[in-house]
Structures are given as C-alpha cells and as structure tokens.
C-alpha cells in the first residue's frame, strides 16, 4: 500500500471572480446594485468562509481575458469552486462560456441584481449555459448563498 495519495486532495479554496465595472460597486447605480463595495462583499465572504473552513481568493478585472485565465488557474490550483459575477460579459462572452466548459471546477454564476427582471439584453446568459447553477437578485447575499453552495460540493 502506497502512502502517497493517488487522488489530489481537494482544496478548500474558492475563487470569487468579478468582471467589468464591479470595481465601482458602492457608487455604481446603488439603487440597482446596493451600497456595499466589492471590499465590503469580500469581508462578508471572508467571515463566512472562515466559519465554513474555506479560503477565498477574490479578484476583479475589467478585461475578459483575465477572467478566462483565472478560470483556468482555478482548475490548476484544484480550487473547490469558482463564484463568478462576469458583469456584462455574462451576456456577451462565448470565451468565458467556453472557459467554464473547459475546466472541471464547478462554477456558480452570481448577480447582485436579477437580470431577468431587467432589460431584454440581460435575459440571455452565456455563463448560465455553462455554470453549475445561478444565484441572482439578492445583492451581496447572492455571493454568500453561492459560498454556502460551494461549501457543500
Ligand atoms: C450584474 C448584472 C449584469 O447584467 C451587469 O452587466 C453587471 C452586474 C449583477 O451583478 O447584477 O455588471 O452582473
């Protein structure tokens, strides 16, 4: 019997990836997205992650390719899950759709607002077609609910 595990030990790392304009949360259309900044949300996630025995790596970029690279990285790091708010790329990006399909790491789509209750152009989600599931419409709580899901994977 070998003492070296043959399967990689699943890590308790959860990537939280945020797309364009989410760096402006807090001042960006607060009537839609609320008053929490991305740092506020990161703090809430870190508190809950600690209770759940998870570690989070929270990032934001306004550039599509960064999100693609980070999805690949999440798999390379054997992350347990990715929580992804791709912002407007949700509705446009086949590259992000394909990246989600390309990795085995489960991806949870999140939105602060409820895109289906908004303009027609937000009703289609390329991310949602590839993600494990979607949580939308609960403001910062959407992220925390996604973390609860990730904890049960
Ligand atoms: C969003 C919804 C998207 O339609 C929009 O482009 C965003 C934010 C949300 O979290 O509600 O940038 O992803």
Automatic annotation (TrEMBL):
Site entry (Transition state stabilizer), positions: 28
Enzyme class per UniProt: lyase
Binding site for substrate: 85, 91, 98, 112-113, 122
Superkingdom, taxonomy of origin: Bacteria
Reaction(s) this enzyme catalyzes, per UniProt: 3-dehydroquinate = 3-dehydroshikimate + H2O
Pathway in which the depicted protein is active: Metabolic intermediate biosynthesis; chorismate biosynthesis; chorismate from D-erythrose 4-phosphate and phosphoenolpyruvate: step 3/7
Catalytic residues as annotated in Swiss-Prot or TrEMBL: 33 (proton acceptor), 111 (proton donor)
InterPro entries, A to Z: DHquinase_II (IPR001874), DHquinase_II_CS (IPR018509), DHquinase_II_sf (IPR036441)
Biological process per Gene Ontology, one example term: quinate catabolic process
EC number annotated for this UniProt entry: 4.2.1.10
Keywords, sorted A to Z: Amino-acid biosynthesis, Aromatic amino acid biosynthesis, Lyase
GO molecular function terms noted in the UniProt entry: 3-dehydroquinate dehydratase activity
CDD domains (alphabetical): DHQase_II
Subunit note: Homododecamer.
HAMAP family, alphabetized: AroQ
Task performed by this protein: Catalyzes a trans-dehydration via an enolate intermediate.
Family: Belongs to the type-II 3-dehydroquinase family.
Name of the protein this chain belongs to: 3-dehydroquinate dehydratase
